[in-house]
Amino acid sequence: QVQLVESGGGLVQPGGSLRLSCAASGSIFSIAVMGWYRQAPGERRELVARIFRSGFSNYADSVKGRFTISRDNAKNTVYLQMNSLKPEDTAVYYCYAEPTGYWGQGTQVTVSS
């Protein structure tokens, strides 16, 4: 079993920055890839970024150049640095551990003036 706890969401103005954190515990040896997904009201959950144990990462086109995913293997924590935030980034952001199937509880990010 894997537990994922997100933190760092909040309200920010357009152009601002936030950093999300996701701390993993439990059977962390089973985690190969950590990812961030988001879901806006009335929309499907979508991939934002993923990072492998090696450090290789990939991003959704909509966030490339603005968001950066990183991981601290010693702390079993993955981060999502979000810069130049736009109103369309507003969503609940979820942490996901592949291939375990476990999700975090989600953290709300609201970008509004």
Rounded radius of gyration (Å): 13 Å
The chain-level mean pLDDT equals 94
Reading the helices and strands in chain order gives EEEEEEEEEEE
Largest sheet: 7 strands, mixed
Global shape: globular
Low-confidence stretches: none
Number of strands: 11
**Structural class by SSE content:** mainly beta
CA distance, first residue to last residue = 40 Å
Helical coverage, percent range: under 10%
Q: Describe it for me?
A:
It is a single chain. The protein has about 110 residues and is an all-beta fold. Helices cover about 0% and strands about 55% of the residues. It contains no helices and eleven strands. The chain starts with a strand and ends with a strand. The strands form two sheets. Strands 2, 4, 5, 6, 9, 10 and 11 form a seven-stranded mixed β-sheet that branches. It has a four-stranded antiparallel β-sheet with strand order 1-3-8-7, with no helix packed on it.
Describe the structure concisely.
The protein has strands spanning 2-7, 10-12, 18-26, 33-39, 46-52, 57-59, 67-72, 77-82, 91-98, 102-103, 107-111. With 113 residues, the chain is mainly β. It is globular and about 40 Å long.
